[in-house]
Amino acid sequence: MGRPAPRTPAVRVPPLAAPWVRTRLRAAPGAAAALALLVALTACLAGAFPRAVDRYEDAGLHRALRQARPEHTTVRVSVPQPDPGLPAGQRARALRPEVLERQFRKVLGTVDSPLAVDRAQSAYGVAGTVSPAVPDPWLPRPTGLPARVSLAAQSGLARHAHVRTGRLPRAAHPVDGTTPEVEAAVTAATAKGLHIRVGSVIHVPAPGRPPLAVRITGIIVPHDPDGAYWSTVPLLRTPTLVTLPTPGPDPDKYWLGALLLAPEAAPALLGTGTNPARYWHLAPDLRALHAHDLDLLKPAVAALESGPALQRARAVTDYGADIGTDLDDTLASFSRLRSGISPLVSVAAAGAATVVAVVLLMAGGLAADRRRAELALLRARGASLSGLAGRLLAETAVAALPAGALGLAVALLAVPAGRTGPAVAAALATTLTACAALPLRAALAHRTVRLTAPREDVTSLRPSRRRTVAELTLLVLAVGAVATLRRRGTTGDQLVAVAPVLVGVIAALLLLRLHPLLLLRLHPLLLRRLSGPTGRLRGAIGHLSLARAGRTQASAVLPLLALLTALTTAAFGGSVLAGVAEARDRAALLTVGADARADSGAPLPADAPARVRAVPGVRAATAVSISYQAKPADGQDSVPLVGVDPRAYGELADRTGAGTFPAGRPTGRSGTLAAVASPSVASAYGTRRPFPVRLEDGSTVTVRIVLVRDRTPAVTGPDFLVVDRAGLGAVAGRPTALLVTGAHLDAGALRRAVGGAAAVRTRADERARYADSPLQTGAEHVYTAAVTAGAGFAVLALLLALLRAAPERAALLARLRTMGLTRAEGRRLLILESLPQALLAALGGAVTGWAAIRLLAPGVDLTTIALPSATAPTVAAELHPDTWSLTVPALLVLTVSTGIAALQAWWSGRRGSVTELRAGDSR
Amino acid sequence: MTGFVFSRARAHRLLLGAALLTVVLTTAVLATLTAYSGAIGDAALRHVLADPRNAADTALIVKADVPPAERAAADAAVRAGARKTFGGLPVTVRTLRRSGPYALPRSLQPAVNRSGDPDLTYFAALDRGRLRLTAGRFPRRTADGIEVALPQTAARALRLRPGDRLTLANRLHGPAARVRVVGVYRPASVTEPYWRLDDLLGRGVKKSGFTTYGPLLADPAVLTGGRTSAGATGWLASADFASVPTGRIGELRTAAREGSTALRKPTALSGTTVSQTALPDVLDRVDRSLLVARSTLLIVALLLVLLAGYALLLVARLLSTERADETRLLRARGAARTRIAALAAAEALLLALPAAACAPLLAGPLTALLAGHGPLARLGLRLDLPAAGRPVVWLAAVAVALGCALAVTVPALTGTGPEARSRPRRPGPPCARSLPFVRRGKTARPAGSRAVPAPLRAGADLGLLAIAGVAYQQLGRQGSGAVAADRTGTLGIDPLLVAAPALALLAGTVLTLRLLPPVARFAERWAAGGRGLPVALAGWQFSRRTARAAGPVLLLVLAVALGMLAIGQAASWDRSQDDQADFRAGADVRVLAAGEDEFGRTDLYAGLPHVRTAAPAVRGAQPLSGDRTATVLALDTAHAADTVLMRPDLADEPVRPLLARLAPRGAPAGARVPAGTARLRLTARLHSSTGPGTTTTVTVTLADRYGVPYQLPAGQLSADGRPHTLTLALGASAGPATLTGLRLDLTQPTDRAEQHRLTLKELTATGADGTEHRLTLPARWTTSAEAGGAAVPSAATSPTRPKVTGTRPLTFAYSTGYLPYAGIWTVASVTLRLQVTRAAPPEVPAVATDRYLAAAGARPGQRVGLTVGDRTVQVRIVRAVRALPATADPAATGAHDGGAVLLDLHTLNQVLQARYGESAVPNEWWLGTTPGDAARVAAALRALPDVGPGQVVVRDEIAAELRDDPFGAGPTAAFTAAAVVAAALAAVGFTVGAAGAQRARGGEFAVLRALGVPRRQLARTVAAEQAVLVGLALAVGLGLGTVLARAVLPLIVLTGEATRPVPDLLVLLPPGRVGVLLAAVAVVPLAVAAMPAVRRADPARALRARGGE
Question: Where in the sequence is the signal peptide annotated (chain B) (predicted)?
Answer without folding.
Answer: none
